[in-house]
Write a structure and sequence with these properties.
Layout: H1 5-14, H2 16-19, E1 24-31, H3 36-48, H4 57-68, E2 73-80, H5 85-95, E3 103-106, H6 111-117, H7 130-142, H8 151-164, H9 168-172
Parallel strand pairs: 1-2, 2-3
Length: 173
């Protein structure tokens, strides 16, 4: 939690060079309340602006396959940690028919999700090194790269870094 999964995905998603490779992009946030129908509707809304008036899983699959077969799409499925294999299969199946070059990025804190959904090995983000933590804290608190111009804050900065345990989200907060 707080190692930068979403931030890293946002950097990719918002990069102009990356955007130029895709016809469309969709960012879907799920977290704890994973519901295949809601997620599929959110994807359809992101891709074509419309939300089908149905909760029929098969009809949503068909509609998604129709939309995705003609577009190269970048999907970010953010903060998914529901690890029910049947639900994931139901969600991923229509996404796999996307036009060649489509990509799906999944951020998760659950390694089981990464194993179930990944065709590539998961990239595990690690905590930041101590010096990098000091730099992040200085940047967010002082707008500088380090505490050199504020030696009186250096000791308290070091204490804050210890308490944040290498987590960029905690440091920036």
């Amino acid at each position: 939690f707080g190692v930068g999964k979403t931030t890293l995905a946002q950097l990719v998603y918002n990069d102009e060079k990356v955007a130029g490779f895709f016809d469309s992009k969709a960012w879907i946030y799920a977290s704890e309340d994973f519901d295949v129908i809601k997620v599929m509707k959110a994807i359809l809304q992101s891709v074509n602006g419309g939300v089908p008036d149905t909760n029929d899983l098969n009809l949503l699959h068909i509609k998604l396959k129709e939309e995705l077969s003609v577009k190269k799409i970048l999907f970010v499925l953010d903060d998914f940690w529901h690890d029910n294999y049947v639900d994931w299969t139901s969600l991923i199946l229509p996404l796999e028919v996307g036009k060649s070059g489509s990509k799906i990025i999944i951020t998760t804190r659950n390694q089981n999700v990464a194993k179930m959904t990944g065709t590539l090995p998961a990239y595990q983000l690690k905590e930041l090194a101590y010096d990098d933590c000091l730099s992040v804290l200085a940047h967010h608190s002082l707008g500088r790269e380090n505490f050199d111009g504020h030696p009186h804050l250096n000791d308290i900065g070091k204490e804050i870094v210890k308490k944040c345990k290498g987590l960029p989200l905690a440091l920036s907060t």
